[in-house]
Specification:
about 180 residues; alpha+beta; two-stranded antiparallel sheet; 6 helices; 2 strands
Length: about 180
């Protein structure tokens, strides 16, 4: 190879590596939140999802529990959490070493030069190992992305729960209001 071709090849290789390095997303940073929001973020999401318990009405509790158990939208939302969880589980192994083992056996019969049939046995055993070093942050980015998808699916499930509970509570209180109007009338 000529000197010009080698220089051109080295330049292209360097440009490709620099291009790959600049396409990696920046590390995720969280902006500072005001104190009121930071305190709200530290509270658990579960009490919000069970807001109706603050009313202390056992009949409302039973109605909402029954609605949650029978609601298909909630079942679909819960199953939609399983897929991103499985993908997240798959990304956990990306930065770890991988071992491959193979084994095989083969038996063949053929006629030899002398005209007699011959049997030949062949055995094959192999092993390999690989490990992807996360120089450009691809593995870490995929893991963060998978975790974000799990959190989004869980948030959608909680949103469906809150919607169901709110609708049942609204209907229940409307019913109680109509009963009170009937009693007053």
């Amino acid at each position: 190879m000529s000197r010009l071709a080698l220089t051109l090849l080295a330049s292209l290789t360097l440009a490709t590596l620099v291009g790959c390095a600049t396409t990696a997303p920046p590390p995720a940073t969280k902006p500072a939140a005001p104190d009121a929001f930071a305190q709200a973020a530290n509270t658990e999401a579960q009490p919000v999802a069970e807001f109706w318990r603050a009313f202390g009405d056992s009949e409302l509790d039973a109605l909402i529990t029954q609605a949650m158990a029978a609601n298909r939208d909630l079942l679909v939302a819960a199953t939609r959490v399983a897929e991103p969880q499985a993908i997240e589980g798959g990304t956990r192994g990306l930065g770890r070493p991988t071992l491959d083992l193979t084994a095989g056996a083969n038996r063949s019969r053929s006629a030899e030069n002398s005209g007699r049939p011959g049997t030949r046995n062949a055995f094959d055993i192999g092993a390999g190992a690989s490990w992807e070093i996360d120089l450009l942050g691809r593995v870490a980015t995929e893991q963060r992305f998978a975790r974000a998808n799990v959190e989004a699916a869980e948030a959608q499930r909680r949103g469906v729960q809150v919607s169901i509970a709110a609708e049942v509570a609204r209907s229940y209180f409307e019913f109680l209001g109509l009963q009170e109007q009937l009693r007053v009338t």
